Amino acid sequence: MAKTGMERLKELEKEIYKCIHCKACRFAYSGEPSREGIGEFTGKQGTVLYEGMVDACPAGIEYGWEAFWNAGKIWIARSILSGDLEFSDEVRDVIMPCITCGQCSAQCENKIPTVDIIESLRAACVEAGVPMIEKHQLVDRLVKELNNPYGGKAEDRFKWAKDAGLGKYINNKNAKVGYYVGCTASYRQIEVAIATAKIFEQLGVDFTLIEEEVCCGSPFFRVGAVDTAQELMRKNLEAFKNLDTVYFSCAGCYRTITIDYPKWMAEGEKLPFKTMHAFELVSKLITEGQIKFKPNKELKGKVVTYHDPCHTGRHFALEMEQEMIKNSKNLMFDMRKVNKAIDAWFEIPRVILRKLEEDVGIKFVEMYRIKNNSMCCGAGGGVRAGYPDFSLRTASLRCDEANAVKADILTTECPFCWRNLSDANDLYNHGMQVMGVLEMISKYNLLDTANLK
Amino acid sequence: MSYKLPDEKDLDAMIGIVGKDYATNNKAITASYLSKSVMGLEAQIPDIVVRPKYIEEIRKILLYCSAEKIAVSPISGGLSGGFACPTIKPAGVMLDLGRMNRIIEVDTDNRYVVVEPGVTIGELWAYMHKNYPEWAPPVPDGAPPASTVMGDAIDRGFSLYTSSVGPQGDNFMCGEIVFPNGDIVRTGSWALPFAKPFYKYGLGPDIWSFLMGSQGALGVMTKVAVKIYPHPKFKTVVVWGMSNPEDMQDLTLEIGKQEFGIAHNTVMVQGGNYPLVMTRWPKDKIPHDYEFYEQLGISKWWMNWECWAQTQEELDYVVNRINKMAEDFKKNRAKDPDSIKPQELHPKQIASRLKKPNKIAVPYSFWEAGFLFITFYTPWNECAHFAKMYTAAMEKYGFPPVMWIASIERCRQAICMPIICFDSTKQSDIEKVQEMNRETTEYALKQGWLNYRPDPYIHAPLTYSQAGMYWKYLRTMKKIFDPNMIMHPGRLALP
After folding, report:
1. How near does any CA of chain B get to the CA of A384, in Å?
2. Which of A420, B47, B193, B478 has the most CB atoms around it within 10 Å of its CB?
3. Which CATH number fits domain A5-127: 1.10.1060, 1.10.10, 3.50.4, 2.60.120?
């Protein structure tokens, strides 16, 4: 029997009561006051001092009221549990404009799983009968009807594959490896899907695209439409159940199926397959010396920076941390291992970027806020759909940070981040190119597989 | 004293002053300002929250609320440990001063920085680090980075060099305050229209000092000039361990009593017992027996001296003098000489202890789910007595005996802070904490020990019940500035 939002919220009661309202969670690098930065930069969204700790909660920055910063929301959750506050439109309207980027959780010395708490709070809010905001209702209706939130037809889901000459991978019966494409790459950023599939092909991965694939449910887990999300979860689990491994190119889908599904599945149920993001595979093959990149005149000398998607970066790091804490018997000793594992996780995409620097001649430059302290792109948590202006201002703040390091190309590894950053880049004239890392590899035909075993 | 419960008309009045985007009675937003932890377990959801930006807005709000008899509680963004002084009964209007967040002026010759109340210590530290790296603002040690300079200072809190120069309140030069009677008062040399904030006591009796420790119960501070100090490159931490609080107290006093020289170089002198380390981890994921900590080289009690110097030679001199005095103490006067030993720190540990501002005081919720700092000032040579009394009380009530002690102004006072780690989801735990708090406060007051940042329902009434004349004059003076007693009622048992 799957859990309700209120049940999840009650499960998290002790975590909620750990919050002392210290508000360290509003900053990136809250534990690094003297971190050397790049100084003050005035961008399209104003002036930011990239030095030491920097305000980094998008909703708090946008709205200002305590309720929109993480700590305020945790105290709202506590008031709900204690009966001091009831669910209402007012509660919904302060808990929804949160991108659930998890920056707050990464800063918390008491290791409070803030994203879990906010998502459970939203689910409980919906269960209590508070209607979702209109834009979320619309995507909820669309996904129930069409199995994707974009209004695309089911038969068009893999049109990109057919058009790109990759149709043979649709329902490739012999393959034990699946590529879960996701709705954004299927219906919007098809260049990400094509690039990923072509790279798989170049790497000799025999994969299948499952025709029964439906939306992973990410937006619906995020906004509290848990029934919808769980229905989608059940369809996907059924469709992919015979595979050994499922690859992803979307950070949100990867996070949802790997982290959320097990939490919302019934007690004792387990994911029937292993999961991996495509960039992990590429990074692994680089480390093993099996692949390298070809030089490229067009890219040589270009300043390239990398945006860590929250869903593949921080959310996995936080999950790793929670899991290791749960299993630890002496956390004082094990915490070092936790930190080491997190560092190693964030290195995976950087292995690719550094190899691109070495082989292709790009200049890889990091933004100020990176890895666990990365600033969100503004797209997640139902915010892009529900609060598009705020979402784009946040993406523009992130583009400002890329401008501050004089990036020509802003890369990422999530089609949803790609979309939002790209839209902000155009809307606010940041003057960069936004591109997926794998997209860059595919577009410029950079892959050298001569040593591939 | 009765107060008006603010209604829609009052909200409209607030909106008329600050605009519709900065005043609300939205129930979710008002609930988000709650805080029942760290410094106190009682809080009330405010009826209206207002976020003014300008001093004139504050003046109008106070005048309106005073006329209507609506209670007002200001917060500068969270006093030094979370919302240390949240709204309590009868709630009313909360003034969130977070929008007043300008760093207005830095003067390195006269050595002050002028800030508004919403400037956080994290922001000020980053600003100084980038623009004035030779100078350090007096940010608190241990308070989280979102706490404010103003909040810490008016609380007479702790700074990173309190052990050398005194409590944070002493770092204030001049201030600007709005009183509920509508007056805007500038103190110290600032009382003169064209004076720099260079002298705190220039115009006779000092009004600003009256506001220290007021917890928002007198007026709203809107600007302050606070001292900055050199930030030298040569720093280290010296640690000596021992088996008992008496040896910790006596050795530290010998060094502090030097007054000049090394006593001034030891900017932060703080210590405690091994449960301070233990309770930073979840209760079921860390050994509880002392043997584990002993194997890690952690003494039962210890004292850190954080030393700052202008040259390596000066730093070496300070370290050598401390070590020599400790050796001499061990040989001649220690209660348990065998237990007295230097603790070697890894460079990473030294760097971690020297990091300011830090989150060192935050993770005590990790033990269970919630914690409370109950803080007292004692004469330094009574801190061991306090520590023994309080750790025994904590054990009696089933809490781990966590004790942190630090020197203020070269061991003139001790700030003693038991950290009560408990499960705040359990009402029974909360009741036990409060029962212990009452019992220990009664004992402490009999010893003449003072509570720091008194709790409104236990410490303040118990303390003032023994200081009737002082309380009478506090009340009389409050009436001058706040004739309708609207400022943070109840917080200091006023009214």
Report:
1. 23
2. A420
3. 1.10.1060
Q: Say if the Cβ atoms of A20 and B357 lie within 8 Å.
A: no
Residues B336 and B444 in one domain: yes
- Asked if omega into B145 is within 30° of 0 (cis), the reply is no
Quick check: A95 and B425 CB within 8 A? no
> Do both B118 and B52 map to the same domain?
no
Give dist(CA B487, CA B3) in Å, integer: 11
Mutation target to probe the B interface, by most B beta carbons within 10 A, among A22, A90, A96 is: A22
Nearest to A85 among B27, B146, B359 (CB): B27
- Do A5-127 and A147-286 fold alike per CATH? no
DSSP-assigned letter for residue A176: S
Q: How far A47 CA lies from chain B's nearest CA (Å)? A: 13
Contact B370 A65 (CB under 8 A): no
DSSP A22: -
Subunit contact A94:B32, Cβ cutoff 8 A: yes
CATH classification for the domain delimited by A290-448, as one of 1.20.1290.10, 3.40.50.10840, 3.30.420.40, 3.40.50.1860: 3.40.50.1860
Are A205 and A284 within 8 A, CB to CB?
Answer: no
> For residues B174 and B178, what is the distance between their CA atoms, to the nearest angstrom?
14
Distance CA B416, CA B408 (A): 10
By C-alpha distance, the chain A residue nearest B360 is A109
Q: What is the mean pLDDT of each run of 10 residues along chain A (453 residues)?
A: 85 96 94 94 97 96 96 97 97 98 97 97 97 96 96 95 97 96 95 96 97 97 94 96 97 96 87 97 98 97 98 96 95 95 97 98 98 98 97 98 98 95 98 97 96 93
Nearest to A183 by CA among A163, A160, A164: A160
Instruction: Tell which residue, B265, B280, B269, B274, has the closest CA to residue B316.
Output: B265
Range A147-286 has CATH code 2.30.29:
no
* Closest Cβ–Cβ partner in B26, B38, B355 for A33: B355
B461 located within any domain? no
**Helical (H) or strand (E) element with B272:** strand B266-273
- The alpha-carbon gap from A33 to the nearest alpha carbon of chain B, in Å, equals 6
Which residue on chain B is closest to A88 by alpha carbon?
B28
- Which CA distances in Å does A327 have to A270, A331, B367? 18, 9, 16
Tell me which residue range forms the domain holding B132.
103-230
Contact call for A325 and B285, based on CB within 8 A: yes
With contact defined as beta carbons under 8 Å apart, do A19 and A75 qualify? yes
Within this chain, do residues B212 and B337 fall inside the same structural domain, yes or no?
no
* Residue contact B365–A110, C-beta within 8 A: yes
Q: How far is A14 from chain B (nearest CA, A)?
A: 6
C-alpha distance from B304 to closest chain A C-alpha (Å): 21
List pLDDT tens digits, range B75-129: 987 644 446 678 889 999 999 999 999 999 999 999 999 999 999 999 999 999 9
Q: What whole-number distance in Å separates Cα of residue A261 and Cα of residue B227?
A: 54
Mode of pairing for the β-strands spanning A409-412 and A303-306: parallel
pLDDT tens digits in sequence order for chain B, 495 residues long: 899 999 999 999 999 999 999 999 999 999 999 999 888 888 999 999 999 999 999 999 999 999 999 999 999 876 444 466 788 899 999 999 999 999 999 999 999 999 999 999 999 999 999 999 999 998 888 888 888 988 888 888 888 999 999 988 899 899 999 999 999 999 999 999 999 999 999 888 999 888 888 888 999 999 999 999 999 999 999 999 999 999 999 999 999 999 999 999 999 999 999 999 999 999 999 999 999 999 999 999 999 999 999 999 999 999 999 999 999 999 999 999 999 999 989 999 999 999 988 898 899 999 999 999 999 999 999 999 999 999 999 999 999 999 999 999 999 999 999 999 999 999 999 999 999 999 999 999 999 999 988 889 999 999 999 999 999 999 999 999 999 999 999 888 888
